Amino acid sequence: MNSYEDLCSLAREISLIHSTASVLGWDQETYMPPKSLDHRARQVAYLSAKAHALATSADFRSLLEKAEPEATATEPTQAANLREWRYELERAARIPTALVAEESEVTSHAKHAWVESRKRSDFTLFAPHLTRVLEIARRKAALWGFKDEPYDALLLGYERGATTSAVASLFAELKPQLATIARKAVEQSAGIPKDLLHGDYPVEKQQQLNREIAESLGFDFEAGRIDTTAHPFCTTLGPGDVRLTTRYDSEDFTSSLFGVLHEAGHGLYEQGLPPADFGLPSGTAVSLGIHESQSRLWENHVGRSESFWQKWLPRAAELFPNLQKIAPSDFLKSIHRSEFSFIRVESDEATYDLHILLRFELERRLLNGSLEVAEVPKAWNEAFEGLFGLTPPDDAHGCLQDIHWSMGGLGYFATYTLGNLNAAQLFQEAVSRPEIASGVDRAEYQPLLKWLRQRIHAKGSEQHPADLMRSATGRPTESAPYLRHLRGRFGETLHA
Amino acid sequence: MNSYEDLCSLAREISLIHSTASVLGWDQETYMPPKSLDHRARQVAYLSAKAHALATSADFRSLLEKAEPEATATEPTQAANLREWRYELERAARIPTALVAEESEVTSHAKHAWVESRKRSDFTLFAPHLTRVLEIARRKAALWGFKDEPYDALLLGYERGATTSAVASLFAELKPQLATIARKAVEQSAGIPKDLLHGDYPVEKQQQLNREIAESLGFDFEAGRIDTTAHPFCTTLGPGDVRLTTRYDSEDFTSSLFGVLHEAGHGLYEQGLPPADFGLPSGTAVSLGIHESQSRLWENHVGRSESFWQKWLPRAAELFPNLQKIAPSDFLKSIHRSEFSFIRVESDEATYDLHILLRFELERRLLNGSLEVAEVPKAWNEAFEGLFGLTPPDDAHGCLQDIHWSMGGLGYFATYTLGNLNAAQLFQEAVSRPEIASGVDRAEYQPLLKWLRQRIHAKGSEQHPADLMRSATGRPTESAPYLRHLRGRFGETLHA
Description:
- Two copies of one chain form a homodimer.
- With 496 residues, chain A is mainly alpha-helical.
- The first copy, chain A, has helices spanning 2-30, 37-55, 58-70, 76-93, 97-120, 123-144, 150-155, 164-188, 203-217, 253-272, 288-302, 306-319, 328-335, 352-368, 376-388, 414-431, 434-441, 446-455, 465-473, 480-490, and strands spanning 224-228, 234-238, 241-246.
- In chain A, strand 2 (234-238) and strand 3 form a beta hairpin.
- In chain A, helix 5 (97-120) packs antiparallel against helix 6 (123-144) and helix 8 (164-188) runs antiparallel to helix 14.
- Chain A starts with a helix and ends in a 6-residue tail after the last helix.
- In chain A, 45% of the residues are buried.
- At the A-B interface, helix 1, helix 2 and strand 1 of A face helix 1, helix 2 and strand 1 of B.
């Protein structure tokens, strides 16, 4: 199997370059001094170009062509790697270099325009850039090809095997029920003071608690760390190097902690991928919708549960004396408190998906041509009012709030809600096993993590997301477990 | 001048790769989790191989061959860049790839053996590795060629234009005088308690003071930062990105501070190189002996002076209350306190160079073949006794203390003392200007930094070190200014 092994070597070389760019990216967000920005951009662009050239090289293609007929059905990992490489290569090959360069140029300007446009809350500044970004996205979709609509082709870049119509059906089913749950959660939260947990939370003590908790979930600090950034993220710098970040509010420890729980969920997935397959599809996370399922599972199903806080509230109260006067039931009410927000990233578990549904529908219409760029603010505000009963005061609190479109990230938002659905479905399946459920009840998560490792993490990209969900839970992604979870949490009582 | 410009582009590409490897190296020493070590080594090796291949490529050679005859005398920077590229290319070309690989293999084993050997204080473990390292160094020296002795060829790798005989003459002149100064300094220090400054120095307050001081010297924190490592260093990640590190002793603030002063001296040099020439010889520090002059100038001539502490001791005493009971004259005595140490890196200003002279002589004899590897411990101890009047208790405190030989760094040590000589000579020249002297008297260093920027930093590698010293001070490197400085500090009174 010489050509397959050569292909693996080439893929590992490409991943060595990508993982080097990840070190540069991590440093840029955490510690890099400001005057380094231009040089850093040159370093990253250089590595990206080298990796892209190798991934689309004649060598790669010819090795793949030799390896494919040699593959045997008895080697499922090998077959999956060949399948993924073929897919990525064809996808990359259909986009001419000139279009890659044009997109890079257009999104670079679009990002600057978006920053300015949002600052002034003036959509007309951003509109011509969005038009150009959209036009490029449509051209790419046409080059890639699609069955029903352009959104299909974009979505596949984030979620292999997914179709717009299947996502749309799921979302249509969710929409009225989510709206009802959200309204009820917000109503029931009216009596919970917003600042109940407000107090003095020294950053070093938050760091200590976050670390203890991340360790108790199974995050390996010999193969990872937590740093501070403006926006939390998780990035993988190598098979033994997964870095999380969070941000600190010295008056509210839950801000950094839920950031860490979310990012540690991503990090546990990355740490659970087969290290020997690093750089191969079989050693790579399969999709954003599966990745987000891991972060949301640990953040919401574990981290906002009663059993979790039975264990951790006493410890938190040792570090933060002002928690000592707060009853556990009040604490839970506080972290389940819900309110409508104009801003997606400030929204809570009960209201979050409504923001996603809105974006999914608008993007789909933009790509289909049934919505003009100039009409986006009006369409956004109408949709928002329909979902939330509120009208954004300005476009900065409406259609200008997210960076994604300016970066060309059309087709991406849907994966956030797919992640929530997958999280609930996986968690429900896991806790149907008595040994996992009893661990979760005692805030001991080794059995849960072990199950996720076997069913999800160890699989890399061997199966498409729908098949992975099917093999882990018996069903493809569906809405019932998530709705059940939300109703349980925001239904009759606030923390059932 | 097309080929010259193409050559510049290629050189910038190489430096883009090197500077990326520097980010990886910095991260490895500061924040990288331990399980990342293997992958990081692969990333660095990959980049090093790519950079080496470009620097020794047929492209580089043919561009250089085209550019050289086109160069004109009216472009001194261009001429200097071509001269340096030619030199580096010929030097690299004379070493066969197989020897590079062999050296990498041999030193990799030698480093492991050295660690173990030092731990057990058993030279016989390290001896066979040192023999192999030495043999490779001799072969390299023979391939590079030399006029008088093999040490010449190795020294040129660190100090362009230097000769062993010139260094040996300087060191021979220094030796008896340094020995006298050191003995006197140690005698006079007998009455100064070792733990006079001992106290409680919280790390965050040390960091604050270090930063204030580094800023006051002119270090630009928009283009740099200070982190924590086991061994202090300075590394350049790009034209606007110079990173210092230091280590903290919570019972002695001077440990981290003098580390920062030393590394900030290196950092000010790097920040003062012409940023537009980053990656070209004209934008690169010229030699280790000049680099070390900058670190020692700020550490010792500035940072251990009376005027410096007239300004900074009151500020330090605000941050560290236990300094309030210490008289300024006692404080100065403390930081000028001298004692003989077996270990070079723990030695002080008055005794440091004796350690270097010893190593220079032994290395030279090893390379000449007049000293056998097996005789090193005996030769070391005899030389040590001759210089210090003491015999090392074991080889861990003698010939096994430094990592340099295990890494193949023969010919390197001499540059430390060259740095001390250059520092004194540059400082003496600078303060002969009244505006610089009066600034220094008030602990205001902008005039001094401006002078160093013009005379040293802005020059990059345009001139060889000896010519650079001549153009800055009127004389090549000599011993008188340094001896004068040491006698002033450790002569009649301890802090004259």
